[in-house]
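Budget justification aside, the reviewers requested a transparent look at the raw inputs and outputs of the sequence design task funded under Objective 1. We therefore reproduce one unedited record. The lines immediately below are the structure tokens for a 347-residue chain.
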């Protein structure tokens, strides 16, 4: 009732475990050693032990990966709540839902460097606290990146540009439901430039990989066209340009576990973010590829926030990587939750 006895399979497993114990003494993780040897004995190619790990809005391509080209795609969602009080203590916060995705490709140009291109889009459904107000933003973007990798360090840089189309509705008049309240709608277009860089280290403690990092991101939002907005209504539809200068300090921790079909890499991370520039420039998640900026009334982001995350990546038969992660971004008056999933196909 236990099925057919297979002594050959038991011998393969036993030999793999014995070899893995010797490798573990040499510093190789035991679970990875067992899985790699079982795959080798079965005639299947072993999955790479280096999985993609998010670095801010970038994804690493390990220097020891045998493939030179990687095509990838991502999808993400975010839910945000901002509690802000404007003049006379009036509610001036918002809640927002963000959805988007992108596709791209990376290519190694040397053993320790790579370049990449991305295109994608984002939609933001904003619900201001003021009854009757609404805002819907659609964005498209493109970016290019450069990554350099050493044994004990990495450096990433990206630059991108995008176009933002914002459909706004503002309600004028007395209190909600009173006679004489009217709604005014306008569509605005703005150009956005993003710059981001990160410098990090590669450390190890036992089976734990540790990557402390320091990052900086700049967003420049161009002046919107207000020529079709009546002068007495321009204060309702903020179109002014803005600059966000944000610094990040944090660390990532990851582990490798080999299974028969994939190498798994769970990871956790935490970082502190500080805004040096315009706090009235709202943005989507700092871990997205292209954070989108916009304005909404008198809303302002807190200048200091904490960001915590957890994720898992899997290398399947060496050519395909899958990954998923969750981020929580919060302060006393701001909470945001973001999920991101993606896949890489390597050639």
């Amino acid at each position: 009732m236990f099925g057919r006895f297979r002594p050959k399979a038991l011998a393969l497993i036993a030999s793999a475990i014995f070899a893995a114990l010797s490798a573990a003494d040499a510093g190789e993780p035991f679970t990875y050693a067992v899985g790699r040897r079982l795959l080798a004995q079965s005639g299947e190619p072993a999955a790479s032990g280096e999985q993609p790990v998010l670095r801010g809005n970038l994804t690493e391509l390990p220097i020891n990966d045998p493939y030179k080209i990687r095509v990838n795609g991502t999808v993400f969602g975010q839910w945000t709540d901002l509690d802000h009080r404007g003049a006379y203590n009036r509610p001036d916060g918002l809640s927002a839902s963000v959805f988007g995705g992108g596709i791209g490709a990376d290519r190694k140009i040397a053993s320790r460097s790579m370049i990449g291109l991305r295109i994608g889009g984002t939609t933001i459904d904003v619900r201001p606290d003021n009854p009757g107000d609404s805002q819907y933003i659609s964005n498209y973007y493109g970016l290019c990146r450069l990554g350099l990798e050493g044994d004990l360090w990495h450096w990433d840089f990206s630059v991108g540009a995008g176009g933002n189309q914002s459909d706004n509705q503002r309600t004028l008049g007395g209190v909600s439901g009173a006679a004489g309240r009217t709604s005014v709608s306008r569509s605005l277009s703005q150009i956005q430039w993003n710059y981001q860089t990160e410098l990090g280290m590669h450390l190890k403690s036992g089976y734990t990989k540790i990557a402390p990092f320091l990052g900086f991101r700049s967003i420049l939002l161009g002046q919107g066209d207000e020529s079709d907005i009546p002068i007495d209504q321009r204060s309702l539809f903020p179109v002014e340009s803005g600059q966000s200068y944000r610094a990040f300090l944090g660390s990532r921790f990851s582990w490798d576990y080999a299974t028969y079909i994939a190498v798994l890499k769970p990871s956790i991370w935490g970082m502190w973010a500080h805004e040096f520039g315009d706090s009235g420039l709202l943005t989507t998640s700092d871990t997205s590829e292209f954070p989108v900026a916009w304005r909404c009334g008198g809303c302002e982001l807190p200048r200091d926030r904490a960001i915590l995350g957890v994720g898992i990546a899997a290398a399947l038969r060496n050519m395909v990587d899958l990954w998923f992660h969750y981020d929580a971004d919060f302060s006393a008056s701001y909470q945001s939750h973001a999920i991101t999933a993606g896949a890489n196909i390597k050639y």
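The first helix runs from residue 7 to 25. The radius of gyration is 24 Å. Computational costs for records of this kind are itemized in the attached budget.
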